[in-house]
Amino acid sequence: MRPVAYAIAAFVISLTIGVSAQAGGGHGRPTFEQLDKNGDGKIVESEVPPHVWQRLRQADTNKDNAVTKAEFEAARASKGGHGGPRHAPLVFEELDKNRDGKIVESEVSPEVWRWLRHADTNKDNAVTKAEFDAARASGHGQGGPGKGRPTFEQLDKNGDGKIVPSEVSPEVWKRLSRADTNKDNAVTKAEFEAMRNSHRGNPPPGKR
């Protein structure tokens, strides 16, 4: 398991134990809504006990001293989905704290930057939206914070059953084109899934 996975796993476990004890010893994990006492869509230090905030702040990926629902669910999802199917990925717009169209190291936690820097293909110490999406599309997001990757349906913008260069950024197409086995300048769902399976180390359908 990677260091970031250890850190987030420890956060989820400790948060569960700490808040459950505070709430009266129940076995269920607290929901975002239960911790967001004033219902403003974010959890801040004043809303939870000090020992809970010490753990909860690890989910504050953009370091604004508040934990949004997306950040909360992303931390839980990275634990492996225990307690329900949670797949909330990191959101570019939330990580881009100053809204300048790129994420830099000072805007995120060290654990998140450790993942993001692999998406910095031009090595300018900043990750653009295109680079962020490309990393997800290439499968780099697997095992990283949030584990979110775009689906075939999300990339197939016009829903015609294939992904073509005009539907994605150049960086994303550069990676997707490797799945275009028949070289027709389009990636079908079968080709897309075959590429995903190869990244996971799984044999293609019919070869198992």
Counting structural domains, the number is 3
The proportion of residues in beta strands is 5-15%
CATH class of the largest domain: Mainly Alpha
The rounded Rg comes to 19 Å
- CATH architecture term of the largest domain: Orthogonal Bundle
Unreliable stretches, pLDDT < 50, 5 or more residues? Answer: 15-27, 80-88, 141-147, 203-208
CATH topological fold name of the largest domain: Recoverin, domain 1
Give, in spatial order, the strands making up the sheet with the most strands.
Answer: 1-2
- Major sheet description: 2 strands, antiparallel
Gap between N and C termini = 27 Å
Shape designation: elongated
Integer average pLDDT: 73
Describe the structure.
The model is unreliable at 15-27, 80-88, 141-147 and 203-208 (pLDDT under 50). The chain folds into 3 domains: 3-77, Recoverin, domain 1; 92-137, no CATH class; 152-200, Orthogonal Bundle (Recoverin, domain 1), CATH 1.10.238.10. It has 10 helices and 6 strands; from the N terminus they run ααβαβααβαβααβαβα. The protein is mainly α and 208 residues long.
Summarize the structure.
The protein has 208 residues and is mainly alpha-helical. 40% of the residues lie in helices and 6% in strands.
Task: Please supply descriptive tags for the structure shown above.
disordered C terminus; mainly alpha; two-stranded antiparallel ribbon; Recoverin, domain 1; single chain; two-stranded antiparallel sheet; 40% helix; 10 helices; 208 residues; 3 domains
